[in-house]
Amino acid sequence: MKFGGNCVDGETNQAHTAQRILEARERGLSPVVVVSAMGRGGPYSTAGLEKFIRGIGPKIEPRERDLVMSCGEIIATVAMAHLLKTMGEKSVALTGGQAGLITDLYYGNAQVVDVQRQGLVQWLDEGYIVFVTGFQGITPKHDITTLGEGGSDYTAVALAFTLQQPRTGLLEESIELDPVHIYKEVDGVMTANPDNFDDQENVRPKLLLSLTYDEMVDMSKLGAQVMQHKAALMARRHGLAVLIKNFATDAEGTEISGDTEGRALREVTGVADVGNLFVFTVPRTTARLAAQLSEDLQRDRLAHWEIASDPDKILFAVRREKYRDVGLVIGHILFDRDLKAEISEQQWGLVSLVGQGMQGRSREVGERAHQVLQRAQVQVAGAIEGEISVSYLMKEADRKKAVRILHAEFIT
Hints:
By secondary structure, the chain is α/β, with parallel strands linked by helices. It has twelve helices and 19 strands.
């Protein structure tokens, strides 16, 4: 069970979260509870700790930065574990390292490379509700690392994967797992981000009761923030069922799995979007250049979108907060070729259609979507065609309008 930051922020929300945990206990389950840092704007939230780090100085070492950033989850986890103790439950709070999450050495956006579950299983065998700090692990040398934005989802999926592995002792019983439950303030995955719609509009995003792994992977990559991209990839790789639910209501939620039997595959399942992007324009001098740029950005774990546009140019769209890091990587590669990238001064947005039913038909769907945007006078600067998705780059000022137009056209 993973609970987002607002689920553990304040007495009322903590009480709702505690009730969800106790309900699982009453059903005969042994909860493993992953907790995010409290809230969005408080001193111990992720944003609050980032502000604190900026006050320390601009050149703090990544290792020390991760030490500070791990504190928010530790505080929230201890608070929730103590709350359950006051309610008469046996509970224990563990850091990511104490729960056995081993990562590589990439501070700020680490990958889980191993989970040593012996300690975690021992606490479960002794009847404890186990609370684990999300968003963090440790290196083989016991340095604390953080797992990137939304990393608590990754923590939960990684723990579920390791717990479902066969136990080694001859007398040890296998562990049966419920789906991973990810609790948020929303009812589940919607057909589009409700923030892009006015309350007065007749058409509003709808709750999706089910998603395929491929749909969740693409939606998380293309801007949907209900599940971290690395977590979605791991769930798909290991076939882990995931349920995204509202922590404070009885809404059914969204089930994510590989089961498509009996389902009518939707042509378009949802409209994802990401805003406030910077765009680098790179001359297309060789066929290899784009691949090398993308490989180097992936190596440095810098999220980016390579966008088809002019035959003589390559567009790389990146999140605003990462454009300096991306600019250094691109500049280094182009310097050796006596080339220079152009950086757009205006802001850009990316709007995408995603649907399992687009398999083999993404170009056809994309052409129709492009025509819809043209009729609405939304100028498209470039596109990305995926196996079950198609994305359009446009001015940031047109992004929300484009989401509403495409949602009205494709979501029934």
